Amino acid sequence: MYMAAIVGAGPAGLAAAKRLQERGWKSVILEEHAVVGDPVACTGLISSSGVNELGIRKEVEETLLNKLRGAQIFSHNHEMIEVKRTETVAYVIDRGAFDRALAREAIAAGAELRLETGMIDVRKETVFVEHKGRGEIIKAKVIVGADGANSKTRRIMGINTGIENFVHAYQVDVKGHFDPHFAQVFLGNYAKGFFAWIVPENEERARVGLASTSGNVRKDFNVFINEKNITGEACDMCSKLIPVGEPLKATVKDNMLLAGDAAFQTKASTGGGIILGMHAGRICADAIHDHFASDAPLKNYEKGCNALNNDLRLHWKIRQFINSKSEEQIDKLFREMGKAKVGEFLSEHGDMDRPSRFIGKALTKPSMWRLLPQGLKFLST
Ligand SMILES: Cc1cc2nc3c(=O)[nH]c(=O)nc-3n(C[C@H](O)[C@H](O)[C@H](O)COP(=O)(O)OP(=O)(O)OC[C@H]3O[C@@H](n4cnc5c(N)ncnc54)[C@H](O)[C@@H]3O)c2cc1C
To answer: Helix count (H) and strand count (E) of the chain?
Structure first.
């Protein structure tokens, strides 16, 4: 009998497993694939502030590909907002290697990792798994569903999520010539409901991707690379869903809890889920610790996520707000934001993960007051 079975060896599950084990609770991680972090579907862009807060410098340094100083965000009609710092604001990591580094940490703390072990069903403290084609049973007091966007645990808990809460992403590694210091984000008709991106690994290689709600992301991607005249040898591709819905309010049912993409703890504005998913994994582990140590209800996990959810909800509102605008309205908004010096403001105060930390500061900048009508519309979204 394990104290906790964690379904999924991604960042959220591995963060939860390590924390649980450190707090003395025997945990097993169940991963359906033969290798952690393979296959990988991710750009691997994470904020330096998030890395510092989580204390994962070692894992990032081991898997670091590039350091970025900012981003250029383009509207449909090529209006641009630039966020630019003199120091590193984000890292590009080898995501597969990063997950394997997190797994080594969890195992070193004492957690058990079972590969090629897919969770099929859960009944109370019994987890039914398939290992190399054979059915097996694992016993655990608590089950953490950290099994990603298409979570089976979430379905077993009876939580239904419609397809409108996801975008479909497609990404290719391209060899060519790129500015190694900046990520680029493109809003355009080719990326209905989301955006396209170029994230450089170095001067000669970049992750070029697009996510949309059109139902044909490959076609959208081809329109984008033709329009931007992106040429070069394509090396690797991946395709996957990203949750962009509101973070789930109910993430606990009986002895089951959800963390990471499974709980929609993903930034709906950008699709990033590594940093906040790991925070959620740790909060989840702390709630399980309190449950075992002092009989606190597991439901406390939902309360523990309040601050995280405030930021996730802001990301979700930003996404709703952008998606409610026409191409012309977005162009106009970008022009207004340029005059209000939003780029300069974000360069000084922005935080990729936690908008709650800088939105209030915007009110103190007179240049930003011209955006007040849009700000009020945003709040009423
Ligand atoms: C194209 C693309 C680009 C992205 N780029 C970024 C980025 O630059 N930065 C960022 O922060 N985020 C990015 N994301 C999002 C990020 O990848 C996710 O938010 C993050 O991986 C979520 O972590 P997780 O641990 O919740 O789930 P996952 O990383 O999805 O891990 C879930 C694990 O569970 C396993 N699993 C699933 N079902 C079962 C089962 N039944 N039994 C056993 N194991 C199971 C899976 O194999 C997987 O290993 C991107 C996503 C996509 C699709």
So the answer is: 13, 18
pTM given for the model: 0.96
What's the pLDDT score for residue 366? Answer: 73
Of 199, 212, 261, best ligand 1 pocket probe by most atoms within 8 Å of the beta carbon: 261
Average pLDDT over residues 292-319: 97
Q: Where are the beta strands (DSSP E) in 11-106?
A: 27-30, 45-47, 64-68, 70-74, 80-84, 90-93
Please check the confidence at residue 380 and state whether its pLDDT lies above 80.
Answer: no
Cα–Cα distance, 39 to 362 (Å, whole number): 41
* Residue for token pair 């099994």: 147
Q: Give tens-digit pLDDT for 17-58.
A: 999 999 999 999 999 999 999 999 999 999 999 999 999 999
pLDDT at residue 345 above 90?
A: no
Rounded to the nearest angstrom, the distance between the alpha carbon of 10 and the centre of ligand 1 is: 6
What's the CA-to-centroid distance between 371 and ligand 1, angstroms?
36
Whether the Cβ atoms of residue 100 and residue 37 lie closer than 8 Å to each other: yes
Which residues form the pocket of ligand 1, taking CB atoms under 6 Å from any ligand atom? 7-13, 30-33, 41-46, 118-119, 146-148, 152, 169, 171, 209, 238, 240, 242, 260-262, 266, 271-275, 277
The protein residue with its alpha carbon nearest to ligand 1, atom 51, reads: 42
Three-class DSSP category at 356: helix
Which DSSP state fits 176?
S
Which part of the chain has CATH 3.50.50.60? 2-66+91-162+246-314
Ligand 1 midpoint to CA 255 (Å): 23
Superfamily of domain 164-243: D-Amino Acid Oxidase, subunit A, domain 2 (3.30.9.10)
CA 342, CA 61: separation in Å to the nearest integer?
31
Answer left, alpha or beta for residue 284, where phi above 0 means left and psi between -120 and 50 means alpha: alpha
C-alpha separations of 257 from 52, 117, 352 in Å: 26, 19, 26
Banded pLDDT at 332 (limits 50, 70, 90): very high
For the chain, where do the domains classified as CATH 3.30.9.10 start and end?
Answer: 164-243
